[in-house]
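In response to the reviewer comment on reproducibility (Comment 2.3), we provide here a single inverse folding case reported in full, input and output, so that an independent group could reproduce the run without further information from us. The structure tokens appear first.
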């Protein structure tokens, strides 16, 4: 397996995990009584937070693996 394939697969997994977390956050917000726009904002915030966390972890791991 090439290095590019591994990187692309890892990126796809991170995006899928972020989408699942965002969907869960939006659903829970809606069940809690939030309006649709508020639930969508919570989902978007969760999606961005998961991607930011993944980028930060990748940066830290890249320093240790060199």
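Designed residues, in position order:
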């Amino acid at each position: 397996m090439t290095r590019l394939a591994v990187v692309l697969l890892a990126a796809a997994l991170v995006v899928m995990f972020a989408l699942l977390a965002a969907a869960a956050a939006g659903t829970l917000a809606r069940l809690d009584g939030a309006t649709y726009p508020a639930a969508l904002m919570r989902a978007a915030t969760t999606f961005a937070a998961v991607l930011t966390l993944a980028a930060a972890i990748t940066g830290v791991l890249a320093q240790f693996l060199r």
